[in-house]
Amino acid sequence: MNTRDPQTLIEKLKNLPPERVAEVEDFxxxxxxxxxxxxDAAAQRLGEAMAKLAALDLPxxxxxxxxxxxxxxxxxRRERLGADRR
Length: 86
Hints:
- The structure is a single chain.
- This protein starts with 5 loop residues before the first helix and ends with a helix.
- It has helices spanning about 5-15, 20-55, 65-85.
- The mean pLDDT is about 90.
- It is mainly alpha-helical and about 90 residues long.
- It has one domain.
C-alpha cells in the first residue's frame, strides 16, 4: 500500500470483516509498542553512557578539541573508504 491519505486507509478498513479489523488493530498496537521499546532501550543506553562519562570525571572538551576529534574521525573514514575502493 502506497498511500499517505488517512481517509483512504479508513475507507479500506471499513470494507474489512471485523476479524481483519482486529488484526489491523493488533498490528498498530504492535508498531506502537515496538517504537516505545526502541525509544526506551535508546534512553537506557544513553543513561548508561552518561553515567560512564561522568565516572571518568574528565574536564569538558573545548570546541577546538571537539572539532579536532571530528576532523580525525572524518580523515580516518576517508582513508578507509579510499583503501576500500582500490
